[in-house]
## 1
Amino acid sequence: MNFNIQNVLIAVEDGYAKVDVQVLDGTIVAIAPSLDVVGTLINGDNKLLLPGFVNAHTHSSEMWQRGIMSNFPLELWLAEMYDFAPLDPEKVYLSALGTAVETLLSGGTSVVDHLVLIPGKELETIATAVRAYREIGIRAFVAPLIQDESLTAGIPSGGTSQTHDPYFLSTATTLELIEEAVRQFHRPDEGVSILVAPTGIQLCSDTLFEGCIELSDRYNLCRHSHLLETKAQEKLAQEKYGCSGVEHLKQIGYLGEVTTLAHCVWLTDKDIAMLAETKSTVVHNPLSNLRLGSGIAPILKYRQAGVNVTFGCDGASSNDSQDLLEAIKIGSILHNVTDLDYRHWLTPRQALEMASLGGVKGLNMADQLGSLSVGKKADLVLYDLTNLSLLPRTDPIGLLVLGRPTNVVDSVWVNGKQIIAEGKVTTINMDELRYALFNHSQWETNRKSQTVSQIEAHYRTVMGF
Ligand SMILES: [Zn+2]
């Protein structure tokens, strides 16, 4: 679709400018005042145009358990989460749509879905999420979550001898499955990419990581993983490898420019230098880290060391929403308490650049996305500056990041296609989505995880509680 956004506010180096933005065949072709109108005219009066953000780490099907998860640290939380994870592909479809809508309405145009797979229906799960993302039109990076060790192996032994059930799928079968997913669904030009995404060192063998590296090299796929989210994982890495998790991933060759790593809470200065050296990207998920008590990722240190950092919501079972602006706000001001030198604190403009350009860098698309530049793809978000939450008029970006923006997204385009108009999704029926989410769920207050009761005593001992 061809269109002109007329008289719209954009951020420039020393403030704001009012310009016209012209988009032809999905690409930004001109940014200047008073351009000739080609195609549809969009009124940009009193609106701010920004490049779309990336929700750079989430797990869409966790939406089914938002608001109900117990107060547990990650290791126990995971056990509860998996005991009640949805097993119905229809639910995967609905929560992918829900995740996409909330991402779009909080400024995102891309989502990295570290997708939890239904056992026995792995390819069907991937197909279902891909179908949802294609229907709604968000740019999707589907990262099927894989592992080859069972859940208890993710808890440090603390020097005791522990045995773990073998994982129900072999490493080879899992890798074949990912390769098949790549053949069927990896279509970057159509807005759907598949990533290799072992869940993390805590539940994956080197064989699995190496298989993923091989697939990534062969098919030009980006790499994703969780990394050192909790204190327990830091201990586990030492038990498993005799070195830090970062050092191990570097040794086996998993780190690099197309590698995005969610969390990175428990890293040493030496680890941070390795992330900088390998040009890996850190995905900061501040709400999840707070909700699960994982810790505060040293984001200011990462930036000072030259590490690329972006934001994610993480799954809605540990957040419990998918509001990207909220993640950006908390992910910025949280660090003011970690460093007394206020000159190191993140500014709203820095935070927005991290959320847009920072996000696409790790996805190997910085040449095509992430800024308002002629020649880049039109993944754009238009904000209504007359909305009450953005009034009175001060600094639009300051208020967008530090305020509590509510229903401020007026329009969203992905690859030049408009998928939100006047604050409403245009590609799917939102009433139907809401009814379906309602009808596939129920109000609950009491539930008990069997797995948690089996592993909690050991966890408390190892962690010294
Ligand atoms: Zn996660």
## 2
Amino acid sequence: MCDLYIMEAVMKKVLVALFALGALVSNVAMANADLAKSKNCMACHAVSNKVVGPSFKDVAAKYAGQKDAEAKLVQKVIKGGVGVWGQVPMPANPQVSEADAQTLVKWVLSQK
Ligand code: HEC
């Protein structure tokens, strides 16, 4: 009886901790999606389908496991560029700071 009671208390704590963690993770994901929206990225990109630019899932798949991809993509987001996904250029995004570009690229590369 006594053991069962303790087990139940522990289980409840574990569940509460998991729930809090889940909320935290989804909050971060939401914040990054909002940042992408507020920086106008979503005018040309979507997470899972091609719009004007490649889908962010395709970008993540292309650069999966490439260590230097992040720094390269941060510069590409700020300065723009063409020729990797086709002949449509991504214009420069001077409204995006280097720190924001890094947050956005990390988020893009985490899409699956
Ligand atoms: C006007 C449309 C447009 C906007 C706005 C835009 N992109 Fe793009 N993006 C593109 C196009 C087109 C490409 C493909 C460029 C190429 O083929 O080299 C691209 C490519 C990319 C890539 C892959 C680059 C590579 O070399 O593989 C990333 C990452 C990316 N965009 C992120 C962003 C982020 C983050 C924002 C918001 C700050 C943004 N884009 C805003 C059109 C846009």
